[in-house]
Protein 1
Amino acid sequence: MTKKLLLLLTAALMAAPAAAQDLGAPVGEGGPVETVAVEGEASDGPLRGTVTDESAWSDIGIAIPAFATDRERATPANEAGTGALGREISRVITANLRNNGLFKPVGPDSLPQPAFPQITAPAYGTWSGKGAEMLVHGYVRARDDGKLVVGCYLYDVALQDQLVREGWVVGPADWRRAAHKCSDLIFSRLTGESPFFDSRIAYIAETGPKDRRVKRLAVMDSDGANHRFLTLGSATALTPRYSPDYSKILYLSYVDGNPRIYVYDIGTGKQTLVTENKSPTIAPRWSPDGKAILYSMAVAGNTDIYRVPATGGQSVRLTNNPGIDVGGSFSPDGRKIVFESDRSGSQQCYVMDADGSNQKRISFFGGRCATPEWSPRGDQIAFTRIAGDFNVAVMSTAGGNVRVLTKGWQDEAPTWAPNGRIIQFFRTEKNSGRSGIWQVDLTGQNERRLPTPVDASDPAWGPIRP
Amino acid sequence: MNTKLATILLLASATSLAACAKKAPAVLPPPPEERVTTVQTTPQPQPTGPTVGTQDHFAAAVGSSTTIYFDTDKYNVDSQDAAALQAQAQYFARYPQITFTIEGHADERGTREYNIALGEKRATSAKNFLTSLGVDANRIAVVSYGKESPVALGSDEVSWARNRRAASVIIN
């Protein structure tokens, strides 16, 4: 302990702010996925009404047989070729729809394999005989340039009609994104909700005993795949936030011995301090347009909230109060900020205008209100409700209609799915201090733990990818 | 240690930081006999004992007073903390070449970011108290670890009380 501190202090005294000695190799993001037209009968528009009753969703049986391929070809995406890749894509889609408690998908491993021509002309009789109401078909085609074209079709078996279709061109390394795009297409068409599967999560990977926990910055796809560690673990990393365009991550690191917020550029692997200041900075947040950053800074022991342009420059102090003011989450239109403050004597949630004016307390439910996060839809705020145990709860933007969604001993730090339907958070176990990322939907149903290679905390769900 | 913790837990300290700071001068003058006692119990540089400028030397001199403890969500210095900080101040007056860091900590029953802010407040409280006792502020660094660095590993009141702390650590 002492040795570590001395090292940290030495680093601090050297005052090399962006020393970055804890960073791993940079990992570029894939960039936008190209959408292409795919063959098929013209859709007749919405023949089926949007499903809004959530209980009805899970009753919809969806058959998702293996995607076909026009011609078996080698691809770096799957050592067994494009046919095997088509089966993998169907498995990913099936897992997406099942894991999130939506629908009753049946995957490729218990279904017949459609031939390539059947992708645009389904054998409806086969599928209605299996009790499927919805049918997903698709294909994989390897182009000569090595890229993959993935087509995705959704059919209503009873109506014998195509509901929607779309296609994407992806590099072999990005094949899972095509599966997520197809999942999103199905989900959106059947529920009327915005997509969320093709998104990523930044979080903190935790290992080691409770008093010597190693905390590393890590990222993964929304389903836990494509996992990467971004820092090496020699310095504690905490509270990451993806920028809206996924090009950067804000996070806290003790790399110079003190808690400081860094802006990490994922593509170049370079990072800079959010503000050149000797005071500790914590709790970073992006504005919805990615142009501004909120951070909290302790000056002479007292923490207040500041805003700074993402490109650097002058910071503006938004709160000025002897209590602890920390965090902050913008409304989707960028005009308001919800934050927490203990100015009343305990942690409570407050809303202010984006310039810091009109600060008003909104939480009056009796317990404490911490880590508020504004829903991407704008109508609700998720927060850590502290009343004995820690639970994840939601309330209206005025503080009403508090609904507790989880029942763990310590459930903390909610983050919204891009479509505002699902909330992730981290759950810490009593005594052992083991942590994991969990998610629950807005109805309080379908709670499940996300698969992560090691313990995990501080999930931060990014927006839908382009 | 346990007795002290029990005492801490029993203390319904509602005293504010300002009140404590006002109270401080009353107990500020170090009694001469206490100084003599400290000199006698402080191991002089010997081949076998801890050397000046190490944490061991500091701990041998002030005992459990290297660390002060706080009530839940509180950051004020109570009378027991004041006594510990006075012992620290005497040590640092005796060894003016020593610089040190005050590490602020919180128990696990708080949210992560708030706890870092709270640890910062606690460490700063201790720093301010020491400077009021004449320790040069330039010798004191402050860092908060929030709830990330517990010393007691249980999820119970006794463990939490041990983790709500500000620990002075010698820089060498």
Protein 2
Amino acid sequence: MIPWDFVLWFFLGSLVLGLVRLVIGPSTADRLVGLNLVAGQVLTLLVLLAVKEDVALYLDVALVYDIFGFLGILAIVKYFTKRRTS
Amino acid sequence: MSAAVWAEFVLVFLGMGFALLGNLGVFLMPDPYTRLQASATCSTTSVISVLLAAMAASGFSPTTGKLAIILLYFLVSSPVATTIIARYAWESGILPWRKPKRRPREGDRP
Amino acid sequence: MTPRTKWDLVRLSSTFLSLFAAWLLFAGPPNAYALVSGALASGVLALLTFRFFLDEHEAGVRHLLPNPLLLVLYLPYILFRIYAASFVLAYDMISGRMDPRVVHFRTRLKSDLARAVLCSSITLTPGTIAILIDEDHLLVHWFTAPSTHSHRARREIAESMEKLLGRIWS
């Protein structure tokens, strides 16, 4: 069988690298790239947790997280674009 | 070991490899566009791989249907988010990084 | 009833039907309460958003309704493209063979939906990111660009997907 624990810890570790880019990114676009990456990895973590523990509820959480991550990126971009032109 | 288990192994392994590569790429690349390339491509591939592996692991059940919906939504939302970020970087005036031209050295022919 | 009113009604009802179908997909096993509240919510949302859901000038049926068989075939095709290009990009990143450029080309697709799907597919394929799309002009960031020539860029990035999409939304 697949060692799900190891896979979960691996994705948690690789998520930290994305978080580093989110914190140090020199421009807003860099931070958004980090945010996009972290959102994808959290989706992966939720799906893996759902399969490992066999709880289908986590999948709903994953879907809603994905939708709101997308809306969040949209809102941040909209906000900063308005900021720049005014 | 059945074919489904082998498929799971290969897909999870691919997902882990591409996730590591994407994160390292985001960490090491020189400008937002190339970072976006690394993140968008490799992390997208890793998420798709893990979703397919989870679909193979859960067999034929309602869980697979939900995973298929998540996969479809991810296939729609991820490129749109990437394009939005790239357009934001382009409109805020960030110029793409170019490969520096190689300087002529001593022994080069003219 | 003017043709404009008729077209508005068609837009309204198609928006309502797609919203309600999405609701049924997520609500699970349907009971009376779920059906009624879903119908009410999608009705209100359709009234609010039907102006943006279908654009006013998009009146051609073949521009909106896809060829279903080819649309089903498009998903495995794009998955195959993603994996193939991922390995190429992984090799390029490890060996440091990168030469990013921004290229511009025009697509030959006519339908707005097909153009949006083409833009998404270009972004989803590793190694290329669509930066801007304006009518039929596309601005693409290419990770390993052999040249910035417009025709060559179109041939190598978009042509195979464009052929398939042109047959799906003809």
Protein 3
Amino acid sequence: MAAISHPRPSVVLSPHFVKQLRKFTAISLVTLFTSLAALIFLAPFGNMMVVALRDQESLAGGPDSPILPMKQVFYDYNDGQRTQRLEVFNVPIDGEVRQLAALQKRRTSVVFIDPNNPTAEPITWQGNWRSLQPAYAFYARWENFPEAWQMIDFPLLFRNTFIIAFVGMIGTLLSSISVAYAFARFPIPGKNWLFIVLIGTIILPGQVTLIPTYAFFSSIGWTGTWLPLIVPHFFANAYNVFLLRQFFMTLPRELDEAAMIDGAGPFRILTHVIVPQSWAAIITVGLFHFVWAWNDYFGPLIYLLGKPELQPISVGVQLFNFRYAPRPELVQATSLMAMLLPIVLFILAQRFFMRGVVITGVEK
Amino acid sequence: MTSVPTPLRVEQVTTLRPRRQMSIYAQQRLWGWLFLSPWLIGFFVFTFVPIVASLIFSFTDFTLTRPDQINFVGLNNWIKLFNDPLALNALRVTFGFALISLPIAIALPVLLASLLNSKYLIGKPFFRLLFYLPYMVPAISSIFIWQAFLNGQTGWLNRLLRLIGIAEPPNWLGHEFWIGPAMVLIGVWGVGNAMLITLATLQGVPQELYDAAKVDGAGAVAAFFKITLPMISPVIFYNLILTVIGLLQYFVVPYVLTRGTGNPNGAAYFFNMHLYRTAFLFQDMGYGATMAWFIFIIAIVLTIILFATSRRWVYYAGGE
């Protein structure tokens, strides 16, 4: 501040200006780099959208077909007697490229009609037609979506997925709130050990319980129904309990005690004191479960084998896409439809999701 | 007028008080067990009993086609496991894949989170949303999306590679060498969750530490390795454990991508796919349970090793 004298070369290159310039450059470079990375990261979405909007003809084009959904241009030429469907090419003539319809393809020359002026004299172009680029025009086939929607019976899949996800969500909320309340507020002997066991189930490989669980559900006749996908969620889950417990622990105990003095029992305290203060955490857990169940594939795969009328979106889309693999535009359209609801939910409720991820991840 | 016999009241209070106090504590404990019971029952029925039953099944020829006839076969299933070429190959595939994807799964979230934490980045919430988004996409959708993206002929990736001068880009899904890297790329798409946790931890590193390091003359690189990495090491450890467990269970991506075959040439035939086929397609539940317990043992051993070594490199700022 005081007596240090800086050499000042000029007004324009003052240290302040240089600093600003450096900062500006850094901001531009970092933001540009991140944008580029994000663009590459999200490119598969673009690929999906574009394929979902193509028609079969343009998909047959292979590596040289245009990137965007386009359609090869044809021209219906009527020579007075009958109508012919002619391919349109980009033809370089006299230094300009014109779009002309090929009337006769010969070995060393092509006879073209100008679609804008069909009655004019045909133009003869010297050269092999194979060296010419076919003309394309932008063409998005939106009908792929309704077509896929009908073929896959999307309303049925949607209904099945919704019931499985929603009832399971109710189950996991009821049970996880109850268990988290127990861990947060009650003097249970060996509570810390029980909590470690609960958290330990997060790193348990799922296979080790899979076969006996399946055998159990099979022996009580639950395979081929939604019950194995719903009922286990009524018995709490480590992530949800952890998230809710962390939240409950931050709530002041004074309110519980005040309610207790007013004569409220533990159940009433839960429903009237704890839950009303915890909507943020409860919504987060509900959303997480809903999206998880919506996206779950393995459970429905093994428990709903051979029951197409009960299958959720994940298995329905997989089976459809295996069967219709030669129709990539339908495969991409169904993939888009399957992810729409979770993505929209996430974008609308991103605050809840992100806070939930941070609580379960950081405080572990 | 009020002729309440005071001595009686006092007596009542004094005799009842200790007993009532006790019963409130006991009552609270009882309520605690009651509220805990959903998990206790669930843990017993859906975790503890199945783990034990799995071990027992592994010594039997249990199959669902004749569930009433269970014969003990001793160690036959375990001996079979170590002589089953498909299982051994699947184990090799699983560990080979884990070896290439683990470093990426650990490093990428840190790099991405550091980028998104940069003070020079404009629009942080927007980029955070974009990089998180694919994590929310159902596995089924993302597999088919990537199948199109990686398509050797028309996929955008190979179009891009051709554009930058690679005349013959790899046939990602059709070649046994490239299917692994292809699945690594699909896995990279799910980086969002780990990135977000890392980012939140990064934001919690006290600025004073960086200021002090600057005073001591440390550059950005030194600060990253000497301050940032130690301070976020608990999150790296958490990601590491979850990634290792996730890789041991890897199933949906190779199963759907290869239509359950694990081809080309078995290069995507993971251990869990062998388990699934054995137990659910060939109904050999006894052998399937053996494979499940084998993976469980590997998971326990790896977890113990990771926890043991974590003392050396995971730094907990709050002490133990």
